[in-house]
Amino acid sequence: MLVTKTAQAGSTANSDVLITVSPSETPGIHLQLKSKDVVLKLFGEQIEKVIMDKAKELGADNVTIKAEDKGALDYTIRARLQAALERASN
């Protein structure tokens, strides 16, 4: 999946996540995760794993992913990421 522009999916409402994807000039998937400190401490690794696994599953490369988590469940994170990647790749 070739990301050609910046796109978003989701919101900053409780129990959701705002995913922003944009093209990157360097190879790979670059993730920036933002959430409350306690959430990052308890669930940060799981959230990162969900995002990275889904991005790889969709064939994303040369992409920067910014995720602003507000307590989203795994299936919500996957859906928001897929929507943002599809919007960014035409």
From TrEMBL:
InterPro entries: CitD, Mal_deCO2ase/Cit_lyase_ACP
Superkingdom of origin: Bacteria
GO molecular function: lyase activity
Alphabetical keyword list: Cytoplasm, Lyase, Phosphoprotein
GO cellular component, one term: cytoplasm
Pfam families: ACP
Signal peptide residues on this chain, from the entry's feature table: none
Subcellular location: Cytoplasm
Name the UniProt record assigns to this protein: Lyase citrate acyl carrier gamma chain citd signal direct
Source organism: Acididesulfobacillus acetoxydans
Lineage: Bacteria, Bacillati, Bacillota, Clostridia, Eubacteriales
